[in-house]
């Protein structure tokens, strides 16, 4: 009897409410890493899609995503076993919110990426330290008590925030760009894999790779979403999100079917599905993404010498616009939209101006990943002027004087940047 009482007390101290608990994290397989990378891209693109293309705005999008994450996380923590679709839904939402947290510090509060990266690294170290002192393990094959799972999700959220800050630091502040970022972070993950093969501790290797997949996924997302003029494939945020989400759903559905068919294995056991079959599914998912990117990518724009486009060609820019160069690239396409919005505002047609400025917002958001690394300070100057225009036109109610003043300021900013060599 005393031993039974001791066992019950030990389980209560560790947070284990029932001996029937099994590991709450999927087996670490090839499909696990593919879903993780794709989910990080969703985190990068989907929030932007809702805020800009759908027009919900940053505040509404942030609130909605945090609310959904809270609901999913509560459901995940209350579940007594691994439910693949719920687990991965929570990961996708954590990815989105982790990105939003970093963007809030960087874009809203103006915190340096060097500072935010260091802060999130310290927070993650604290989480791991407390987790280790409480549980004596950081292994994701032992997420089998409520307390361990709470530590796990706290670490996961912090890794996404750290990965976002570190990735932005590399691609923006250090001006590496998204193409170099994809190569660098992909290479680092391969290096971790090689080190693991040579004897690196498995738990350490997992968490390093988990952090690195965040900037890798973001760089791959930028490569797909950015316009061809910026060096991307031009799929856009909405199409990229749909393609990645479709692959995620297919792979998670397979995991759910396997879980329903074979049950959830206890910690440390071999997955029910053979590794070769898992590699085949992961390869099929990767091929599906590549095939969709090739098939759906728009043809390169061909613009005539006068800046006009014929059949099958993209719309050109006004040839009378000033110097096409600036520290952050060609601003003429943006200047054309701004001039059009200004003309409408000066006529007093603020409704038409508000509708047209949406094109500016979308185009500016689509070009961020390519333009910002070229000169972050100049990008922020332009971004601030654009925000001023959006605020003036979307005021309740907007005034002609305020809108024209904000637009004139934006035109001046464009002109100053085009003269800055």
Mean pLDDT: 83
Shape: elongated
Radius of gyration: 24 Å
Count of DSSP helices?
A: 14
Query: SSE string, helix = H, strand = E?
Result: HHHHHHHHHHHHHH
Low-confidence stretches: 1-20, 266-271, 302-323
Summarize the main sheet. Answer: none
Q: Tally of extended strands?
A: 0
What number of domains?
Answer: 2
- N-C termini distance: 82 Å
Helix content: over 70%
Structural class: mainly alpha
Percentage of β-strand residues: under 5%
Transmembrane segments: 21-38, 50-73, 85-105, 111-131, 151-170, 176-195, 202-221, 233-253, 279-299
InterPro entries: DUF347
Pfam families: DUF347 (PF03988)
Protein name: Membrane-anchored protein
How would you characterize this protein structure?
Helices cover 72% and strands 0% of the residues. The longest helix is centred in the middle third of the chain and has 28 residues, at 146-173. It has helices spanning 2-14, 30-53, 57-78, 84-108, 113-135, 146-173, 177-197, 202-225, 236-262, 275-296, 332-346, 350-371, 376-393, 400-419. The termini are far apart. It has 14 helices and no strands. With 421 residues, it is an all-alpha fold. It folds into 2 domains: 19-296, no CATH class; 332-419, no CATH class. Pfam families: DUF347. This is Membrane-anchored protein. The chain crosses the membrane at residues 21-38, 50-73, 85-105, 111-131, 151-170, 176-195, 202-221, 233-253, 279-299.
């Amino acid at each position: 009897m005393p031993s039974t009482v001791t066992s019950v007390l030990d389980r209560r101290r560790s947070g284990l409410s029932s001996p029937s608990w099994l590991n709450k994290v999927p087996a670490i397989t090839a499909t696990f890493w593919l879903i993780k990378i794709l989910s990080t891209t969703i985190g990068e693109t989907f929030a932007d899609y809702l805020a800009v293309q759908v027009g919900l705005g940053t505040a509404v999008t942030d609130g909605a995503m945090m609310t959904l994450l809270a609901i999913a996380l509560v459901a995940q923590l209350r579940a007594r076993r691994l439910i693949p679709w719920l687990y991965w839904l929570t990961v996708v939402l954590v990815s989105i919110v982790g990105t939003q947290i970093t963007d809030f510090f960087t874009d809203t509060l103006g915190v340096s990426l060097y500072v935010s990266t260091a802060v999130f690294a310290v927070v993650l170290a604290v989480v791991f330290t407390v987790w280790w002192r409480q549980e004596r393990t950081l292994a994701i094959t032992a997420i089998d008590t409520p307390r361990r799972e709470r530590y796990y999700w706290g670490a996961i959220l912090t890794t996404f925030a750290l990965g976002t800050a570190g990735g932005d630091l590399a691609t923006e502040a250090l001006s590496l760009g998204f193409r170099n970022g994809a190569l660098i972070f992909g290479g680092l993950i391969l290096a971790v894999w090689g080190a693991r093969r040579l004897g690196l501790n498995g738990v350490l290797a997992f968490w390093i790779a988990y952090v690195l997949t965040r900037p890798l996924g973001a760089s791959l997302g930028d490569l797909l979403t950015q316009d061809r003029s910026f060096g991307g494939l031009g799929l856009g945020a909405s199409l990229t999100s749909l393609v990645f989400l479709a692959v995620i759903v297919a792979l998670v559905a397979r995991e759910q079917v396997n879980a329903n068919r074979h049950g959830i294995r206890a910690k440390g056991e071999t997955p029910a599905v053979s590794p070769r079959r898992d590699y085949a599914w992961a390869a099929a998912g990767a091929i599906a993404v590549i095939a969709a990117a090739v098939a759906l990518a728009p043809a390169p724009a061909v613009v005539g010498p006068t800046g006009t486009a014929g059949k099958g060609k993209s719309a050109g820019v006004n040839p009378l616009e000033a110097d096409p160069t600036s520290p952050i690239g060609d601003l003429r396409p943006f200047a054309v939209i701004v001039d059009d919005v200004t003309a409408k505002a000066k006529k007093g047609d603020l409704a038409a101006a508000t509708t047209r400025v949406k094109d500016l917002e979308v185009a500016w958001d689509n070009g961020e990943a390519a333009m910002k690394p070229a000169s972050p300070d100049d990008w922020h100057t332009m971004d601030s002027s654009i925000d001023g225009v959006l605020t003036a036109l979307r005021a309740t109610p907007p005034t002609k004087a305020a809108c024209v003043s904000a637009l004139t300021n934006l035109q001046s900013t464009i002109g100053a940047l085009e003269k800055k060599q």
